[in-house]
Design a protein that fits this description.
Elements lengths: L25 H5 L2 H10 L2 E4 L4 E4 L2 H9 L4 E2 L14 H7 L18 H13 L1 H21 L6 E3 H6 L1 H11 L3 H19 L4 H28 L4 H6 L10 H32 L3 H7 L4 H11 L5 E6 L3 E3 L2 E3 L4 E5 H4 L36 H18 L1 E5 L6 E2 L8 E3 L1 E5 L4
Parallel strand pairs: 2-8
Antiparallel strand pairs: 1-2, 3-5, 4-12, 5-8, 6-7, 9-12, 10-11
The structure holds protoporphyrin IX containing FE.
């Protein structure tokens, strides 16, 4: 599919030499794909000195790491910068936590601990049930968001559409009202920023303070659920079958924090990326409207082409060879999903968005794979479906607004937008 409407797109140009590449440079942050392509071609398991990390860039190598968790630990492996540890003030704040000893859960844990938490979360989140219960309400809410700007001919997609949608779902999962859910969004922003690393000291300190506030929030809700009973996610986490050990307070807090961040940040960027692609790709909007059966593949192609969470991290537990490179135990790895998802050995013209690409041939890695594969992927896909269904029904001729250029998401390893102004035809329905 051509994308001549490609105003505001990432220009794809090769840079000089792979050794000089920094993914932290302003150029790479704005558009990392030229750097990824060069790394894949010249040095696919490449050491990035400024992050002290090995970037694994090819699909098969990322798949290998994800599929062999006994060789690669997720403990200590989440951020590329491990932001809290770099700032004693933040550690001092965290030392006041009531959730001590801190406990590693899910994305920060290995089996058998992770296996146990995952089972508990799958039961409490119950994606199928959650969506049956909340799907229709979400659709109503999405219509409500659009009502607020439908007569204006323009909207700021991130704040008026992409953020409110997952927040609506989070408010239902945690059973909180709108005011509380926006406090949660603030916490989630700071947690996520601190986890991605390479952020200002004040952000990390704010994240430490918010960690304690969040703990209080979860502990209060646990107390309430224990005394009054509750059907929300926290209540369900406490409602363990008799033959399984109950979760500790620290486990409940950490699981809630991971579901809050997971449920929010990547989904926001996913939704913005969908809208951006429609607004900048000739003919796509009409094709999707006329052929709604193409929407599921559009979601997959968007997740592949503009992977919202570009990377996750692991540490080698033993000496291991990846892509022909010998690595010692203790080597830190950045699994670059954004690069793997454009790997030319799996995707013909992988740099191009192509609605007709058969994404079943090689399933993208945007949700990871293996034991840590995203626990919310069914929910995220349904949110995308609902967003598009309502958007395409209500708004016509979506395009970038002339007056304000899109601003990319500022955090390292994230592909999405900070602001995205979209124009459309008023009264076109
Ligand atoms: C488009 C949106 C999303 C993207 C791109 C995404 C991406 C990912 C990725 C790549 C992982 C694997 C991490 C690893 O291997 O280290 C993951 C794990 C996870 N995600 Fe998502 N996610 C999204 C939406 C969600 C939603 C909506 C929820 C919850 C409601 C969620 C909850 C989780 C949890 C709990 C894990 C940890 C699973 C484990 O470690 O066992 N995610 N996600």
């Amino acid at each position: 599919m051509s994308d001549t409407k490609s105003d505001g797109k990432c220009p794809f140009t090769a840079t000089s030499h792979v050794d000089g590449i920094s993914l932290l440079s302003a150029e790479s942050r704005a558009c990392p794909y030229a750097a990824y392509s060069q790394i894949r071609a010249e040095d696919p398991v490449h050491f990035l000195p400024d992050q002290n990390i090995w970037m694994v860039s090819r699909y098969d190598d990322v798949d290998f790491v994800l599929s062999n968790p006994e060789k690669f630990t997720s403990k200590e492996a989440l951020s590329s910068g491990n932001a809290f540890r770099d700032f004693p003030e933040a550690l001092d704040i965290l030392s006041r936590s009531k959730a001590i000893p801190r406990q590693r859960t899910l994305i920060l844990a290995d089996p058998p601990v992770q296996t146990f938490h995952r089972k508990v979360v799958q039961r409490a989140l119950a994606p199928g049930k959650t969506l049956r219960a909340f799907g229709p309400t979400i659709e109503e809410r999405v219509n409500g968001f659009i009502d607020r700007f439908v007569d204006a001919g323009q909207f700021e997609c991130v704040s008026q559409f992409s953020i409110p949608l997952p927040m609506a779902l989070v408010s239902m999962i945690f059973d909180v009202d709108e005011e509380q859910v926006y406090r949660m969004k603030g916490w989630s922003d700071n947690f996520f920023a601190a986890l991605t690393g390479h952020v200002a000291k004040q952000t990390v300190i704010d994240a430490a303070v918010d960690t304690l506030v969040f703990e209080e929030f979860v502990l209060e809700r646990m107390q309430k659920a224990r005394t009054e009973g509750s059907d929300c996610f926290i209540g369900k986490l406490l409602d363990q079958p008799e033959d399984e050990p109950p979760l500790t307070d620290a486990e409940v807090i950490n699981i809630c924090s991971q579901v809050l961040v997971g449920g929010n940040e990547s989904t926001i960027n996913f939704i913005s990326n969908l809208v951006h692609t429609i607004a900048t790709t000739d003919g796509l909007e009409n094709r999707l409207r006329e052929n709604p059966e193409l929407i599921p593949n559009f979601l997959e192609e968007s997740l592949r082409h503009e992977t919202p969470l570009q990377a996750m991290y692991r540490i080698t537990l033993e000496p291991v060879q990846i892509g022909g490179v010998d690595l010692p135990a203790g080597a830190k790895l950045m699994l670059n999903f954004g690069s793997a998802n454009r790997d030319e050995t799996h995707y013909v013209s992988g740099e191009d968005f192509d609605l007709d690409r058969d994404n079943r041939e090689t399933l993208h890695l945007a949700f990871g794979r293996g034991i840590h594969a995203c626990a919310g992927q069914t929910i995220a896909r349904r949110e995308g479906m609902i967003a598009l269904k309502v958007l395409l029904h209500r708004l016509k001729n979506l395009r970038l607004a002339d007056d304000v250029q899109p601003e990319p998401a500022p955090l390292f390893g994230v592909r999405g937008f900070k602001t995205l102004n979209i124009a459309f035809d008023v009264n076109a329905t």
